Fold this sequence. Notes:
Layout: H1 2-9, H2 11-32, H3 39-59, H4 63-74, H5 80-107, H6 116-150, H7 153-165, H8 167-170, H9 175-189, H10 192-211, H11 219-238
Amino acid sequence: MDAVINFTSQSQGRDRLFRATQYACALSTYLLRNNPERKDVVAKLKSLEASMSGGRKLFRLGNTINSIEAAKRTMQLSDRVLCLCLTVANINRGLYFICDNVLWARNAGLIRDIDKERWSLSASRYYLFSLVMSLTRDVYVILQLMVKRARDKHFKQRMNSHLNESPEVAEVVIPQLDAFLFLLMESLKSHPAVVLDTVKNICDLTIPLDRLGIYQSNAGVVGFCGLISSLIGIVTLVRPNLKMKP
């Protein structure tokens, strides 16, 4: 119970709950869209989705400063690749929050003379760049884990045993591919934080790709991926040991 209270007391925790609700509503709306008996439910879900989206924009008003501070910290990393990926990701995230704050001010009536569509597309571009750099970091970390694992003598013995235990499968599956997948699974098995972060970023990637028209899916896919990403975000807040660092 204390963990739940601590979670909901954080603005980030409330944002994750709102986000999960928002995308759950979007997914439910998509699934019920062709059901004439559920028109009232669909209307209520759309209204709730819009309310959650507006609430999240309010929670994110101070996130630009957080992103700038995060960029300052990542610039101090000794690993050049991690330094580059995380710093660029944080800078783009900060620019995304600036656009998001402007859109919030526009919706609240505080600013009138702006092109809402242009700012929305700019926000999606910065969000996309941030996710691409975060995914690049994930791939880099995974490759490091695989290289380290491959050098382990005990693992080499297990690899040879795995490749030789099913000769009938080896005739169907390319040995190099089988060895690569085995190495990948063994490397990630003891690093759930890396797996969760990678899955989260891949799911998030569908949102700006669809918004920018680069790879259009549908509201159901976006809602499902957004919900999965939100649930992973909630898990990593409740269980900080599952959050990828740095």
